[in-house]
Design brief:
The chain is an alpha/beta fold. The protein has a single domain, classed as Rossmann fold (3-Layer(aba) Sandwich). The chain is built from six helices and five strands, in the order βαβαβαβαβαα. It has a five-stranded parallel sheet with strand order 3-2-1-4-5, with helices on both faces. The relative contact order is 0.19. The model has no long low-confidence stretch (mean pLDDT 94). Bound molecules: adenosine-5'-diphosphate. The site of adenosine-5'-diphosphate (ADP) has 17 residues, from helix 1 and strand 4. Adenosine-5'-diphosphate (ADP) binds next to helix 1 and strand 4.
Length: 168
């Protein structure tokens, strides 16, 4: 039987993208023919980088991975997935707190749109890596250079310096 073509989306805020996200992407693409990294416009989260900046920051990091592309979206994740013909959502899991939240999200998405969510477990070295904590630690002067790609680290330092300058 011929293998079915599967396109998946990996939605998130990616503010900024971390080594943990990249780990999920490299594991996830093995399961699908195509994977679209879908950068969302989360109004609730503190957006250090604009939507367009986050998309541009991710592009060079995945340029060498066949089948992976990056797009932004500004609607319900399930609506976006349907609009690009994706039949699965990829999400990463770090711990039991993630499981609880993701379980609810996946059940809701399946109930409203019939779409399945596929989970991959993080590489153990990334179990504590989160964009929120990275932003907090970096803004207080902590060294997060081994949790995010080098280019992202430089952009983060630059943005924090700009914010500090504005604050005076
Ligand atoms: P969201 O705002 O939707 O939670 P994030 O950008 O924070 O978006 O995360 C996107 C996805 O990546 C989520 O499924 C999240 O659980 C997963 N993720 C984030 N960091 C890691 C990590 N270090 N290891 C594995 N998965 C992760």
């Amino acid at each position: 039987m011929a293998k079915r073509f599967v396109r998946a989306v990996f939605p998130g805020s990616f503010n900024p993208i971390t080594n943990g996200h990249l780990d999920v992407i490299s594991r996830g693409i093995k399961l699908f023919n195509e994977l679209i990294i879908a950068v969302g416009n989360s109004p609730v989260k503190n957006q250090l980088f604009t939507l367009a900046e986050r998309v541009e920051m991710i592009k060079p990091l995945v340029a060498g991975i066949e089948g992976v592309t990056v797009q932004s979206y500004d609607c319900l994740t399930v609506e976006y997935a349907a609009s690009v013909g994706a039949t699965a959502i990829l999400r990463g899991l770090r711990n039991l707190t993630d499981v609880q939240y993701e379980f609810q999200l996946a059940m809701t998405n399946r109930a409203v749109a019939g779409i399945e969510t596929v989970f991959v477990m993080t590489g153990e070295q990334y179990g504590f890596t989160s964009s929120t904590l990275i932003r907090e630690v970096a803004s207080l002067g902590g060294d997060v250079s081994n949790l995010i790609p080098q280019g992202i680290y430089e952009k983060l330092q630059k943005r924090l310096a700009e914010i500090n300058l504005k604050k005076g």
